[in-house]
Design goal:
Layout (H helix, E strand, L loop, with lengths): L1 H6 L3 H12 L82 H7 L4 H25 L6 H11 L5 H21 L3 H21 L15 H16 L11 H4 L3 H21 L7
């Protein structure tokens, strides 16, 4: 017992130590605030009517309106949430939709060509067939023609140089241009080539009498050659129409700058051939 008592620390000194700690001290760090009060340990005990850990507290339902002070949001000083609105269901029409035609007066006017295309077809085919017939007459001597030798002699008498080559060029131009016009293929270029040929024909006819043959009416006049030249110029400007291989090209639907350029090309080529290969002044 003596040994056990010796092992027990001095309880008196420990009590003094605790008393010194719990007693009031002059150090301000250990002084209680003036408003604090001692807590009774018995206050931590549950009340007699406590239902246990499974007891729940009823939460009041939110029925406040904007501006009401009874809402729980006022405690945290936060704005009340906006009322939830169910989004409307969007309906998409996945079926076929009919597209209304474009009400454009210009589009309708472009489709109302009437007999214009038929008239262009007759003009183009008739003029092309005439060129083919004249070309075959010069090459093979058909229908009372003189053949290539007669054409060469005629060109030489008119004052053309290099008549041997020029005779084949002239006959080939007539046949090729005629075939393209009948088919409605490369119509502005074919008509321009025919126009160049007719320009030389008119100039050679005027120059045949020393520049004094300015008659218009047949048989000594130039009305026939001038009429063919005008037809070639008209086809160059108006295009082939819709009945031909050029139906999908711009010069068939709405000829403008390209056709005008082809007209100038035909006139320039005719005058150039006359100046380079003949050089005579048709007016004397």
């Amino acid at each position: 017992m003596a040994e056990s008592a010796a092992q027990i620390p001095n309880s008196h000194s420990r009590a003094l130590t605790l008393a010194g700690v719990t007693s009031s001290s002059e150090d301000p760090r250990w002084q209680r605030p003036a408003s604090s009060s001692l807590v009774d340990p018995e206050d931590d005990l549950p009340a007699d009517d406590y239902g246990g850990d499974f007891e729940t507290t009823a939460i009041p339902s939110y029925q406040g309106s904007p501006g009401s002070s009874s809402s729980g949001q006022d405690v945290l000083h936060e704005p009340e949430p906006l009322p939830y609105v169910q989004p409307a269901a969007t309906r998409y029409n996945t079926g076929p939709v009919e597209i209304e035609p474009i009400d454009d007066e210009r589009v309708r006017a472009a489709g109302r060509r009437g007999t214009q295309d038929l008239g262009l077809l007759l003009l183009r085919v008739g003029f092309g067939a005439l060129l083919i017939a004249h070309g075959l007459n010069k090459v093979f001597g058909w229908w009372g023609g003189t053949g290539m030798s007669g054409l060469r002699d005629t060109l030489t008498e008119m004052g053309y140089r290099h008549a041997d080559i020029l005779s084949y060029v002239a006959a080939g131009t007539q046949i090729t241009a005629g075939v393209l016009l009948v088919l409605g293929l490369f119509t502005p270029l074919a008509a321009a080539a025919a126009l160049a040929y007719q320009v030389n024909t008119v100039l050679a006819g005027v120059n045949s009498d020393g520049g004094h043959n300015l008659a218009f009416f047949a048989p000594q006049g130039h009305e026939y050659d001038l009429t063919l030249a005008v037809i070639a110029a008209v086809i160059t400007l108006v295009g082939p129409g819709r009945y031909g291989f050029d139906a999908g090209r711009g010069w068939a639907r709405r000829p403008f700058i390209g056709s005008f350029f082809a007209l100038l090309l035909g006139i320039g080529a005719g005058v150039g051939v006359w100046v380079l290969l003949n050089g005579a002044n048709p007016l004397g």
